[in-house]
Amino acid sequence: MILYKTPFKPQTLVAGDVLAYEVKSAAIAHVRACTFHNASANNVNIEVYILPTGIDSPTAAAQRLVKKVLMPNESYLCPEVVNHVLEGGFKVYFKGEGCNAMLSVSEQAQ
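User: That's the sequence. What structure does it adopt?
Assistant: Structure tokens below.
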């Protein structure tokens, strides 16, 4: 059975690396949507990383899919992230203090 989830509900990001989603060990996930909106009065640097199993924080071993500067009141739909298939244990991290973010996935048990 395929479950449609929003594991990272719309919220404002805090400083540092924010864990947006971790795939359950017995599941496969498919990224359906990833969005950012800069509601602040300043530019915000956003980043999205996918970490393979066994990696705990965004490092050289992570795959950075998005690195972009959002101007005030700008939104970004992150097409670089959509349609990625993530195996059990994979993690998605966001960066972008003060920016609003959301992630939507479909998840299926293996």
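The beta strands are 2-12, 18-22, 27-37, 44-51, 63-70, 75-76, 85-86, 91-95, 100-109.
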